[in-house]
Write a structure and sequence with these properties.
Radius of gyration: 16 Å
Shape: elongated
Order of helices and strands: HEEEE
Largest sheet: 4 strands, antiparallel
Strand order of the largest sheet: 1-2-3-4
Helix content: 25-40%
Strand content: 25-35%
């Protein structure tokens, strides 16, 4: 019985993780589109891949590196999700 509960708990954690990623991707696309651009690629960052312009990355925060294009010009930006005040955009 305990194993079943552990498996169910693990499945729920994985499901929430994927939902959170999809939500972040949608918000990134909305923000870049509101600037008149198109997202080329996004990369979820961690301590090994760098935190961009953010000095500290606390528990529960997620950082993305975003490549996007506006008027034919490729640009790079960063966003950090998980703060009290909402996303921290550096586009």
């Amino acid at each position: 019985m305990e194993i079943v509960l552990v498996v169910i708990f693990f499945i729920i954690i994985v499901f929430v993780h994927f939902l959170q990623g999809e939500n972040h991707q949608g918000r990134i696309n909305e923000k870049v589109n509101s600037l008149g651009g198109n997202v080329i690629s996004t990369e979820r960052c961690n301590l090994l891949t760098g935190t961009g312009p953010f000095i500290m990355n606390g528990k529960g925060r997620t950082i993305y590196r975003v490549e996007y294009e506006i008027n034919g010009i490729s640009k790079e930006g960063w966003v950090r999700f998980g703060g009290i005040t909402g996303p921290d955009w550096r586009l």
